[in-house]
Every structure is written in C-alpha cells, then in structure tokens.
Amino acid sequence: MSKFFLKPSLKTDVVIVGGGVVGCSIARELSKYKVDVVVVEKEVDFCQGASKGCSGIIHPFVTPFNSLKGKLCVEGNKLMDKLTEELDVPFNRCGLLFVSLNRKETFFLFLVYLVMKWRGIQVKFLNKRELRKVEPNLTNKAKCALLFPSGGVISPYELTFALIENAQKNGVKTLLGTKVEEVLVENGEVKGVKTNKGVIETSYVVNAAGLYSDEVAETAGVRNFKIVPRKGCMIVFDKKLRGYYRHYVAEAKIKQDPRTKGGGALLTVEGNPLWGPNLKETGSKEDTSVSRKDIEEIINTYNVLFPDFPLKIITCFAGVRAASEKGDFVIERTKVKGFINVAGIQSPGLTAAPAIAKMVTELLRKEGLKLERKGSFNPYRKRINKLTDYPPEEQDKMIKENPGYGRIICRCEQVTEAEVVEAIKRGAKTLDGVKFRTRAGMGRCQGSFCTPKILEILSRELKIPVKKITKKGGKSLILLYKIKELLKGA
Ligand SMILES: Cc1cc2nc3c(=O)[nH]c(=O)nc-3n(C[C@H](O)[C@H](O)[C@H](O)COP(=O)(O)OP(=O)(O)OC[C@H]3O[C@@H](n4cnc5c(N)ncnc54)[C@H](O)[C@@H]3O)c2cc1C
To answer: pLDDT of 371-384, one tens digit each?
Structure first.
C-alpha cells in the first residue's frame, strides 16, 4: 500500500469521480448515511460537463422502455417533484406535446397512445380543436397530438448546484480543480485514487466522470465500454417571446432524424424559448462549437412546428453527450471490488439522475459498504434570494436590510449585487460560476453590460486581482492588460 501514497493523504469511505448532475445526485443520496464521501471534480466548479450543455427536459419516458435508461427515466421523473421541493429548485411540469403533421404520423400517434396506455404512462389524446386551444401558434398543418403531462423543464445547473450544496451541508467533502489520474487497485480491490494533487485512500470509487468515464475505468483495468461523444447544439431566443408556446413540443416523426433525435421546442424555466438539440458524432470530447449549418438545421426543423415564430436569437450553445457504444447506461459493479461504473449517461441522464443515485447506493451496499441512516440529514436547501421574486413592499425591506439589493448588476436578467455576492459565498469563483448561479450575463445583451461589474465584485470578494479572474478556470483569462498600462508603453 505505502508505495502508492503521497503524503499527506486523505482518507474517506467513498470517492465520487465527477461533479456533474449524476455525481452530485449520488453525493446527496449518500449524505443521508453515516459514510464519509469526497466528490472529486477536475474543473474549478461543478456542472461543467454535459450537465451544463443540456436542454433541461425532464422526459416522461424514453425508449426502449426495458433498457436501463428507459426504466431510470420513468423512475427519475417521478422523484423530481419531491426533490425540487426539498432543494427549492424551480421545476415546471409543462407537459410534452407530441404533434402529428400528416396522416401517417396520426396513425403512428394512435399506436403510441395504445402502447403508453398499456405501459401505464399518463397520456391524453388532443384533436385538432383541442390542440389549437392549448397551442394557438402551432402550424395549421398540425392534425392532433399526444399530451404527456409528466414531461417538464428544469434548470440543469440550478439542480446540480442545489444537490451539491445540500450534500455539502450534510457532510460531503468536495475537491475542485482535482483530476483523478488513476484508480489504485491491489489484489482486485480498490485502495484509493491518485489525483494531480495527491492520493485519497478509499475502498469505494464511483466513476461518474461523464465523457472521461471510459478513461477512468481503464486505469482501474475495467474498461468494457467506449464513450462515443455526440454533440448537441441548441438555440436560445429572447425572453420577450415567452408565451408564444407553453409546452415542450416535438413532431411525432415515425423515423427519428438522427441529426435532431430527442429535440424539440421548449420554454426554459426562466422563460426563454429554446430549440434543439441536434445530434452530431464528434471526434472530440471537448468540441462545443456551433456552426451556421447547425443553426440553420435546427431552425428548419422546428420552424415546421411554428412557421411564424420571430427568430430573435440571443445565443447558441452546445453540449457533448457521453454515449456508450452500447447505447444504454452502464451502471454496474465491476470485477474490481469497490469500483462502480456510472457511465454512458447520455440523455435522459438529467431526468434519471435521482434514480441513478438510488441505484448506485444499492450497488455500493452490495459491494459491502455499510450504510446506516443518519438522523441528522437535512433535506432542505434554499435558493439565492432574488429581488424580483418579491412584491415592491418586500423589495423595499430587502434593500433596507441589504443595500446590495438596491444595485442592479445585470439589467437584462435584473440580477442585483446582493445576489452576485451570495453566489460567490456559495462557491462561484469565475464569471461562469456567477452566471450559472444567478443568470447574470444570460440575458439579451449576453453580458456586455454586466461583465465588468461582475469582474469587480469577484475581485473584491475573493480578494484577488481582477486580471486573475477567469471565465471558467484554466487559461480562460478575461483581462490581459489595463488600457492605461498599454498606453504608458506606447
Ligand atoms: C446537448 C445535450 C442535451 C441534453 N438534454 C437532456 C435533456 O433534455 N434531458 C435529460 O434528461 N438529459 C439530457 N441530456 C443528458 C444529460 O445532460 C446528461 O446525461 C447528464 O448531464 C450527465 O451527467 P454526468 O454527471 O454523468 O456528466 P457530466 O455533467 O459530464 O459530469 C461529469 C464530470 O466529471 C468530471 N470529470 C471527468 N473526468 C474527471 C477526472 N478524471 N477527475 C475528476 N473529474 C472528472 C467532468 O469535468 C465533469 O464535470 C443532454 C445532454 C446533452 C449533451
């Protein structure tokens, strides 16, 4: 053993590799028990992988129903109400509308309806008149639709941050900017993990490393799957179009177009229409570029549903799905005692995350981890208090108590200085850290107005020079010189 360990080493019962929505869900679930847990994340913040580049749909189901992802999707969907209530995360069960645009699709819808009824999935048939009533801006070509009321939308980052905040409150330790380089195995048993910052001694490792889960599994000698990165691009529209449609709307295509598989037109919980994602096999795990072709492809696909929709695009983004070549989730015990793979978590990984966490807890129990409930577990967490969520008389009170509420930093999203400071207190160290916790910079001007102000607040609160602040860690510096310094040298 000793040959492995650098000094000083950290000891814990369980190491979770990866701080995406899956790793953070597992951490929160394990925090209900008397075990020491450490989450190790290579980036400077949580939610930096697929969980950030995701569209936020809580799917009512996915096919095949009997696959692991099919089962965990339905289970995760059911757990979402209680979870979001406990964690104070906005969740809108807006419903999924599966729309037919021609006779063939109508016939297909009838078949889908029967299968769903048989499967016990809540579904309602809407004829043309009923459909028009609920979605008046939908194309005239729409014939009928199936409404799945359990479909919903959530902010994937708000959920991930809430999960880890609550887990931390319940004793989970976290190491950011720490990369697991090797899983240490001796005589077929996990002994620890070697990171770029030292060694952590442990008997249990949960590999929730998303796109890199195959590489982490390889170091433990149990790589029996390959991650195939699949990029998905999305377009975000101006909030002013909120109300143009209400549901998550998708066409009932008989043969799914592989380039738009799983996509639709949805309204985020914050009220921005969002179209996509498409699907592209990409050779790179880090390729989050969006091309003009992607944008045109997405617009052409969803314009068919809403032909008069004003295309007021405010931004585009992409995420990379960590699909396994097997096509299903890979959640399993392995031949190395104490090592659990939680890999191939492509869509519907966000929906399934709470169910995955329960499944992994049971796998750990079977591996021999003693799991005794903790009486002190506190399931509740409160989200950052947002000034605009309150009526004017309450707002006055808030500003008197904390003048930071009286200073608007992001005009588009109406984010105050007090909210930015609170985000920093909760762990934001970068521009993106503030953005994804408060929405400052996510509005129509995309940060043109608020970026300098946020940099100043970050610098003041973290007590670091403003030039050292990054967008998302690493080399993503924002300011290189002060104009005055440049002019002096001229
Ligand atoms: C475009 C797109 C749209 C999607 N839409 C939906 C949707 O609408 N609904 C839905 O249910 N699902 C959706 N998904 C799927 C969902 O986003 C993912 O299944 C889910 O986010 C996976 O979470 P994760 O924690 O496994 O992975 P990630 O979020 O990728 O987290 C893995 C983490 O591991 C870290 N890591 C990697 N290697 C190491 C290492 N060696 N050491 C330490 N840390 C490491 C990474 O930095 C990363 O933070 C979508 C995905 C994409 C890409």
So the answer is: 999 999 999 999 99
pLDDT at 1: 41
The structure tokens 């392995």 sit at 334
Which residue spans within 254-378 are E strands per DSSP?
264-267, 273-276, 280-281, 313-324, 330-333, 339-343
- Which residue in 28, 42, 52, 59 is the catalytic one? 59
Instruction: State the pTM of this model.
Output: 0.96
In angstroms, how far is CA 380 from the centroid of its own chain?
Answer: 20
* Structure tokens that stand for 363 in this block: 């796998």
Assess whether the C-beta atom of 27 lies below 6 angstroms from ligand 1.
Answer: no
- Beta strand 144-148 with 124-126 is antiparallel
Sign of the four-CA dihedral 478, 480, 482, 486: negative
Pocket probe mutation, ligand 1, options 184, 216, 350, 356, max atoms within 8 Å of Cβ: 350
Beta bridge partners of residue 180, listed in sequence order: 195
Contact 41 CB / ligand 1 (< 6 Å): yes
What's the CA dihedral at 155, 156, 157, 159 to 10 degrees? 80
Cross-strand partners of 236: 274, 315
Taking the centre of ligand 1 as the mean of its atom positions, its distance from the CA of residue 161, in whole angstroms, is: 14
Tell me how many degrees the CA angle 28-425-413 measures, rounded to the nearest 5: 95
Ligand 1 mean position, distance from CA 160 (Å): 10
Nearest CA to ligand 1 atom 10: 348
Q: Is 247 a catalytic residue?
A: no
| Whole-angstrom distance, CA of residue 314 vs CA of residue 311 | 9
Encode pLDDT of 312-357 as tens digits. 999 999 999 999 998 999 999 999 999 999 999 999 999 999 999 9
Nearest-atom number in ligand 1 for the CA of 48 is 49
Token pair of 285 as six digits: 């795990």
- The rounded distance, in Å, linking the Cα atoms of 260 and 237 is 18
- Residue 431 in contact with ligand 1 by CB distance below 6 A: no
Residue of the CA atom closest to atom 14 of ligand 1? 347
How far apart are the C-alpha atoms of 2 and 437, rounded to whole Å? 42
Ligand 1 atom with minimal separation from the 234 CA: 1
**Residue 214 near residue 227 (C-beta atoms within 8 A):** yes
Could you give the domains of the chain? 96-149+228-324 (3.30.9.10), 388-489 (1.10.10.1100)
Question: Distance between CA atoms of 355 and 26, rounded to whole angstroms?
Answer: 9
Q: What's the CA-to-centroid distance between 424 and ligand 1, angstroms?
A: 23
pLDDT-derived band at 166 (thresholds 50, 70, 90) equals: very high
